[in-house]
Design goal:
By secondary structure, this protein is α+β, with helices and mostly antiparallel strands. It has three domains: 46 residues, no CATH class; 121 residues, no CATH class; 100 residues, 3-Layer(aba) Sandwich (Endonuclease, Chain A), CATH 3.40.960. 43% of the residues lie in helices and 18% in strands. It has a four-stranded mixed sheet, with helices on both faces. The radius of gyration is 21 Å and the shape is globular.
Length: 279
């Protein structure tokens, strides 16, 4: 119980950093900390059910990292918060293989592989892809292992969702919004862009783009709340001199108007491909 205040503060801060401008303001107002504190107090005082294990969900923060996070509980139950909805824990019967469970800070948690499976088969496809991308990049999740698991458990509910999410995954994505931006394009039928593309000139990396269509010399960047306009403009002067065009998207473009955004990118991409078409 000593961790309740700290856990509540981390939860509110991470939600504010990740979802400001996306969710309604009441999620981050002065009462948010008290509500989270009460929520965690109720959860941490629940009687654990014997023979059960809490599935470790993921928390995606602006630091662009996904880690398995648990309280220093010193017991066999992990208390977590999920980035995909209200704070909650997924409780499952202990029917897992021994290799699907590990120990973090003295608490039994599911491995990145099992965590990806559990999230992808329950959440919306986009959320599943976000989790898989992040776990693959930051926690050593092997996509081939997840594909094998989806085949081995193909008769389980949600196995098709896991396969669909894995087929769209890209471990090179460095943030949840980069993943969502990529999905907005590919879901609209556009070719998959290259994630974290490095533009090299004279043996030197001039820029690294969130997404890029190298043949069209078209870059697509996500501008979060902490992006630096001055550095962006300086970089675009350099890349523009090399014939590159950069499209900048914000959360509203991705979350509120995905169809319009994809249509605009499609038109620009078509024109750029014609411009740089090789004879």
């Amino acid at each position: 119980m000593d961790d309740v205040d700290g856990i509540a503060r981390v939860t509110v801060r991470s939600w504010r950093e990740t979802y400001a401008g996306v969710l309604a303001d009441h999620h981050f107002d002065d009462g948010a900390l008290d509500r989270r504190r009460d929520q965690w107090t109720r959860f941490l005082t629940m009687d654990p059910l014997p023979g059960r294990l809490v599935v470790a969900t993921v928390q995606i923060r602006r630091s662009r990292a996904v880690r398995l996070r648990g309280s220093r509980c010193g017991c066999s139950h992990l208390r977590t918060t999920s980035a995909f909805g209200p704070a909650r824990a997924l409780r499952q019967r202990a029917s897992r293989r021994a290799e699907e469970v590990t120990v973090v800070d003295g608490c039994r948690v599911t491995t990145p592989l099992r965590t990806a499976w559990d999230i992808a088969r329950r959440e919306r496809r986009a959320d599943g892809v976000v989790a898989i991308d992040s776990l693959a990049r930051n926690s050593g999740l092997a996509l081939d292992a997840l594909v094998d698991m989806a085949f081995r458990l193909r008769k389980r509910p949600g196995a098709a969702l896991v396969r669909a999410a894995t087929s769209r995954a890209d471990p090179r994505a460095e943030s949840p919004m980069e993943t969502r931006m990529r999905l907005v394009l590919t879901d609209a039928g556009l070719p998959a862009p290259v994630s974290q593309y490095e533009l090299v000139e004279a043996g030197r990396v001039v820029a690294r783009f969130d997404l890029a269509y190298p043949d069209a010399r078209l870059a697509i960047e996500y501008d979060g709340t902490a992006h630096d306009d001055v550095l962006d403009r300086r970089r675009e002067v350099r890349t523009g001199a090399l014939g590159w065009l950069t499209i900048r998207l914000v959360s509203a473009d991705i979350l509120q108007a995905p169809e319009e955004t994809a249509a605009s990118v499609r038109e620009v991409l078509h024109r750029r491909l014609l411009l740089h078409e090789r004879p």
